[in-house]
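Postdoc handover notes: sequence design on the structure in folder B. Input C-alpha cells:
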C-alpha cells in the first residue's frame, strides 16, 4: 500500500482519538483518557515508523468516482478493466522509454515484464484499486519502476492542470507512444464521466470530470513527431548525473537537450571538445495554442574517434 495512503488512514485515526481524549477530559473520565492517550502514543509511533521507512518498490492507489461507480459498493467491470489496462500500458511505455531512450514507431514494448504492477487490494472510499510492484527480492534502493510510477502520476496531474506551462515542460521528455497511451487513458475516463484520485508514495492528486475533460482535449491536441538519425557533433558539455548535454553541429548550430542513461554511462571527460558520431533523437512538439518547438535527446555514442 502507498505510504501516503497508510499515513492518511493513521492520521484520520489520530484525529478521532484526540477528539475522544477531549471528550473524556470534558466528562471527567480519567480511565478513558488514559486508555485513549495510550492509543494515541501507539498511533504516533506507527506514523513515525512509516514516515522513516525506506519504501523501495512501486505502489499506487487509483480511486474512481462518477458515473461508473456506485458509492463504495461497486464499479462497472468494463470501465475498470479498460482504465486499469490503459494505466498499466502507460506505465509500461514510460518505463521502457526511460530505460531505452526511445520506443520506436511500433512493435513490442521493451522490458514490459519488468514494469508490470499487480492488484493487491481493493480500496474503499469511492472505489479503488491498489497496484504494487511485487518482487521476491528485497531492494536496498528505490527501483526504476517506482521512479516511473511517480513520474506517471506527475504526468497525469500536469495534463489536467488549468495552466499549460507544467504540462508543456513534461511533454519535452515524452515519447510519442507514451503520449498516445496518455491520450487513451483520459479518453476512457472522459467517455465514462469518471472522476479520479491518485495516491502514490508521497503524492496525492484529485481530478474531477472537468479536469479530466481538459486533459483529454489537451493531450488529443498535442502532436509529437520524432526522427532518429546518426549525426556528427562536437561535445561542448555533458552532465551525466542530470543526463543533459550541449553540442555543436557541423552546420555551426549549438543544440542542447537530454541524454539516455546509456549515453550518460558512455560519456567521459576526454570527449569534451571532440567531434563524435551519435544517435540523436530530434523531437518536434506541437502543443495546444502554442508554437511548435524542437527538442533533442542524445541516445548513444556510436563513434568517439572522428
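Designed sequence:
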Amino acid at each position: 500500500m502507498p505510504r501516503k495512503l497508510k499515513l492518511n488512514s493513521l492520521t484520520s485515526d489520530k484525529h478521532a482519538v484526540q477528539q475522544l481524549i477531549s471528550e473524556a477530559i470534558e466528562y471527567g473520565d480519567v480511565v478513558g483518557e488514559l486508555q485513549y492517550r495510550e492509543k494515541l502514543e501507539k498511533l504516533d509511533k506507527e506514523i513515525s515508523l512509516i514516515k522513516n521507512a525506506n519504501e523501495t518498490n512501486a505502489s499506487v492507489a487509483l480511486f474512481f468516482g462518477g458515473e461508473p461507480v456506485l458509492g463504495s459498493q461497486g464499479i462497472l467491470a468494463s470501465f475498470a478493466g479498460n482504465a486499469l489496462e490503459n494505466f498499466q500500458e502507460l506505465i509500461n511505455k514510460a518505463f521502457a522509454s526511460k530505460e531505452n531512450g526511445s520506443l520506436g514507431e511500433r512493435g513490442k514494448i521493451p522490458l514490459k515484464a519488468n514494469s508490470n504492477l499487480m492488484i493487491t487490494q481493493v480500496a474503499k472510499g469511492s472505489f479503488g484499486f491498489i497496484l504494487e510492484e511485487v518482487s521476491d527480492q528485497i531492494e536496498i534502493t528505490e527501483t526504476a519502476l517506482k521512479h516511473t510510477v511517480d513520474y506517471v502520476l506527475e504526468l497525469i496531474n500536469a495534463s489536467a492542470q488549468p495552466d499549460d506551462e507544467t504540462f508543456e515542460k513534461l511533454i519535452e521528455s515524452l515519447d510519442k507512444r507514451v503520449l498516445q497511451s496518455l491520450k487513451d487513458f483520459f479518453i476512457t475516463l472522459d467517455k465514462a464521466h469518471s472522476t479520479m484520485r491518485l495516491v502514490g508514495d508521497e503524492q496525492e492528486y484529485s481530478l474531477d470530470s472537468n479536469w479530466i475533460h481538459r486533459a483529454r482535449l489537451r493531450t488529443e491536441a498535442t502532436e509529437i513527431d520524432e526522427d532518429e538519425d546518426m549525426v556528427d557533433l562536437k561535445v561542448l558539455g555533458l552532465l551525466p548525473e542530470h543526463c543533459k548535454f550541449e553540442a555543436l553541429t557541423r552546420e555551426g548550430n549549438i543544440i542542447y537537450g537530454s541524454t539516455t542513461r546509456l549515453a550518460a554511462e558512455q560519456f567521459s571527460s576526454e570527449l569534451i571538445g571532440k567531434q563524435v558520431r551519435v544517435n540523436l533523437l530530434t523531437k518536434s512538439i506541437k502543443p495546444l495554442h502554442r508554437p511548435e518547438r524542437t527538442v533533442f535527446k542524445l541516445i548513444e555514442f556510436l563513434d568517439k574517434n572522428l
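Context for whoever picks this up: Residues 3-52 form one domain. Don't rerun without checking with the PI first.
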